[in-house]
């Protein structure tokens, strides 16, 4: 079985475990800290994230957990990652 999503840039082999994707103990700790601060504004859209709604514990700098963590709506987090990916792709062409 081999799933892939070329638009998102991932395959099942890359998407296997949370730890393999960088969501280990540090991420769980950060998520628990952020959960205690809800309700809080979404880092991207600034609308309130309520404790009973889905949210992501997002890297402040995509892929760099040492830069910190922020709470974001799932759609906001994914769109932010897509914009960064597109920007990096355009920059590589130059």
Provide a descriptive summary of the structure in words.
With 94 residues, the chain is an alpha+beta fold. The protein has one domain (24-93). It is 34% helix and 24% strand. It has two helices and six strands; from the N terminus they run ββαββββα. A two-stranded antiparallel sheet has the order 1-2. Strand 3 and strand 4 form a beta hairpin. The longest helix has 20 residues, at 74-93. The radius of gyration is 15 Å and the shape is globular. The relative contact order is 0.13. The model has no long low-confidence stretch (mean pLDDT 80).
Low-confidence stretches: none
Oligomer: single chain
Order of strands across the main sheet:
1-2
**Biggest β-sheet: count, sense, barrel?**
2 strands, antiparallel
Backbone shape: globular
The secondary structure category is alpha+beta
Task: Report the mean per-residue pLDDT as an integer.
Answer: 80
Q: What is the H/E order?
A: EEHEEEEH
Fraction of residues in β-strands: 15-25%
Gyration radius, in Å: 15 Å
Distance between the termini: 37 Å
Whole-number count of domains? 1
